[in-house]
Amino acid sequence: MKCFRLFTLLLLLVGVVPAFCWAQRAAASPVNIPQLLDSVALRLNQHYIFLAEARRMAAYVQSPARQQAYAALATKPTLLVKQLQADLQTVHRDPHLFLAYNPALATSSRVSPQPTAAELAQAKKYWKANNYLFKKAEVLPGNMGYLPFTGFVPDVGGAQPTIHAALQFLANTNALLIDLRANMGGSPDMVNLLESYFFRERTHLNDLINRSTNDTTVFYTDPAKAQHLTLTMPIYILTSHDTFSGAEDFAYALQMAQRALVVGETTGGGAHPTKPVSVGQGFVVSIPFARSLNPVTHTDWEGTGVVPNVKTEARYALLKARELALQAQRQAAPTEQEKHQLTYLLEELPRPHPAPVLPMRVLQPYAGTYGPLTIYQRRKHIRGAAKRITITISSSGISNRVATLFDAATAIRAADNQFLYSG
Question: Which of 50, 74, 259, 304 has the least CB density, counted as fewest CB within 10 Å?
Answer without folding.
Answer: 304
